[in-house]
Amino acid sequence: MAKVILGPLITDARCSVGNTVFTKNRAGNVTRLRVKGANPKSTKQIKSRKVLKDLNLDWVYAMTDAQRAAWTIYAETFKHNTPLAPGQTLTGYDAFVQANGMINYIIGGFIPDPPTDRLVTDMGPLEIVSSSAAAHSLVLSFTPAVDGNHVLPLFMAPQLSPGHMTHRNRFQFLFALGYGDSPPIDIGPYYEAMTGPISNPHDGAWGPLVAGKKVWIRYYAADLSKGVRTPLGYTSTVVGP
Fold first, then answer.
1. What global pTM score does this model have?
2. Are residues 137 and 188 in contact, defined by beta-carbon separation less than 8 angstroms?
3. Disulfide: which of 28, 63, 78, 212 matches 67 by Cβ 3.0-4.6 Å?
4. For residue 156, how many other CB atoms are within 10 A of its CB?
5. 20 near 33, Cβ under 8 Å?
6. HSE (CB half, 13 Å, CA atoms) of 108?
7. Is 218 helix (H, G, I), strand (E, B) or coil?
C-alpha cells in the first residue's frame, strides 16, 4: 500500500483505475492493488441472489405502472439509515425490494402494494434464559407470543471463546418463529445442526454446544403482511455445562 500526496488540482481520489484502488484511511490518502472478491457460492449467497433476481422480475413484469408509482410515493414517507449514509430517501424500487426481500427470503412471494403504515409489534427483548452443553439446549424467551401476521427470524453466529466481544458478523439464518410460537422455546438441537463456511478459526465453530463457549443471536420482529420490521436486536450467552 502506497501513501499518496495530492496537489492543488486534485484534492481527493476514490474508486479504481485499472488495477489501482484509491482510498483513504487514518494515514491519509493511499492506493492499493485491486483485489477480486471471493465468490464462495454458499447456500445463503445463492438464495440471496435468487431473491433479488425474483424481485427484479416481479417489479418489471408483475407490477402495474400505478403500483410502481405507489411504491415511489411510499418511499418518500420515511428515511432509510445506514452507518455511512443516514437519512436517505429510497427510490420506489429500493423500497419495494427492502420490504419484499424479507418476505421472499422467509416465505416466498411478494406484496405488490406498499403498506399503509410502518407499525410493527416488537417481540423483544429476546433473551437466552438457559443453556446446557450436556442437554444440547438453548432456551429462548420473548414477549409477546408471535401473532398471525408476525414472524421472529433468528440468525445464529458460530460459537466463540468467551473473551470475544464481537460476533464478527458471521450470522446464518436459522429459522423464523411463527404464529402460535410462544416462549420458552429450545433451539439447541436446531443450532447444533447448523453449518456454514468458516475461513478463520478465530471466527468460531459450528457443531455441538460446548460449555464455556459464547453464542450470539441476532433477531428482529417482522410483519410479513407489510414487509416492515423492528431494528436488529442482539443477545448472547456463555454456554453452561
1. 0.74
2. yes
3. 63
4. 24
5. yes
6. 0
7. strand
Domain covering 127-238 assigned CATH 1.10.8 in the classification: no
pLDDT (0 to 100) of residue 65: 96
Please tell me the distance from the alpha carbon of residue 87 to that of residue 133, in angstroms, as a whole number: 44
Terminal CA-to-CA distance of the chain, rounded, Å? Answer: 47
Report domain extents, the chain: 2-33, 43-106, 127-238
Q: Using 50, 70 and 90 to split pLDDT, how confident is the model at 14?
A: low
Tracing cell 403482511 back to the chain, one arrives at 225
The residue that leads in pLDDT, 5 or 155, is 155
Judged against a pLDDT cut of 80, whether residue 21 lies above it is answered with no
Report pLDDT digits (tens) over 104-117.
988 889 999 999 99
Instruction: Answer whether 188's CB lies under 8 Å from 136's CB.
Output: yes
Contact predicate 99/114, CB 8 Å:
yes
Residue 26 pLDDT greater than 80, yes or no:
no
Q: How many other C-beta atoms lie within 10 A of the C-beta of residue 197?
A: 15
Cell 481520489 found at: 13
